[in-house]
Design brief:
It is a single chain. The model has no long low-confidence stretch (mean pLDDT 94). The protein has 8 helices and 7 strands, in the order βαβαβαβαβαβαααβ. It is an alpha/beta fold. β5, α5 and β6 (183-189) form a beta-alpha-beta unit. Strands 3-2-1-4-5-6-7 form a 7-stranded parallel beta sheet, with helices on both faces.
Length: 265
């Protein structure tokens, strides 16, 4: 298996029904991989699967609803995926969106919910798929993380703390799994086009402003040097690179996909 020829790989993507997850599924299918993906929203999953099967009629594809915070559901998904496609050699952990809150207004319940989401959305899939990854050639785990891990924001205190913890988790797993030949890396995303930003656009005060101008104004306000929000496909390309043998000597690392928003060394 060389470069982006992933025809002998079985890839698993959590949160794969929209956004970065769906873009990653598409790139993996284009590279020839067999792909299993899951999500919580059944309607979105069905729509994504229907579209992908039309566009990739020869693809080996397995889709199932699964809440990655439920260990039992993840175990069932892992077993069913292996029966359908064979043992996984790539696992992409695509965690959920951030929580806007300051230290003063973040309750204990909110802290618990946010930390649980960010950690166990990775811990449960890794535990479930690790036996499959072990022994597979070019095995790789990739975690979708945020620039908040290195550049925290006071209005996203809980998410920033959780993301920093995830960055350390990636490094710890990379060191532990290296003897088994499993690489573990992540990406740090900045502002990427998503349903969350689309909803904010729909709620804009200036109803005459189009999406492109709204995004440009937002990027200017956020001081993004490239002057725009990122696209899901741009994050997906970094994920697939880290999942492929092109990054065979890279583990415990993160690729910055923030359009230059990063200010940390």
């Amino acid at each position: 298996m060389n470069g982006f020829d992933l025809s002998s790989a079985v890839a698993v993507v959590t949160g794969g029904s929209s956004g970065i997850g769906l873009a990653t599924v598409e790139l993996l299918l284009e590279a020839g991989a067999a792909v299993a993906f899951c999500g919580r929203n059944r309607e979105r999953l069905q729509n994504a699967e229907s579209d992908l099967r039309q566009r990739f009629p020869e693809a080996r594809l397995f889709v199932r609803p699964c809440d990655v915070l439920d260990a039992a559901q993840v175990a069932v998904f892992a077993e069913a995926s292996q029966r359908a496609l064979g043992p996984a050699s790539i696992l992409v952990n695509n965690a959920g969106q951030g929580r806007v809150s300051t230290f003063a207004d973040t309750t204990d319940a909110a802290w618990t919910e946010e930390l649980h989401l960010k950690f166990f959305s990775i811990i449960h899939p890794v535990r479930a798929f690790l036996p499959q990854l072990q022994g597979q050639p070019d095995a790789a785990i990739v975690c979708v993380n945020s620039l908040l891990a290195s550049q925290p924001e006071p209005h996203m205190v809980a998410t920033s703390a959780a993301r920093a913890g995830v960055r350390n988790l990636v490094r710890s797993m990379a060191a532990e799994f290296a003897p088994a030949g499993i690489r573990v890396n992540g990406i740090l995303i900045g502002l990427v086009e998503s349903g969350q930003w689309r909803r904010r656009f729909e709620a804009r005060e200036n109803r005459g402003q189009d999406w492109a101008n709204w995004c440009s104004e937002l990027a200017q306000h956020k001081q993004i040097p490239l002057g725009r929000l990122g696209k899901p496909i741009e994050a997906a390309r970094a994920i697939v690179f880290l999942a492929s043998p092109l990054s065979a000597y890279t583990t415990g690392s993160h690729i910055d996909v923030s359009g230059g928003l990063s200010r940390h060394a």
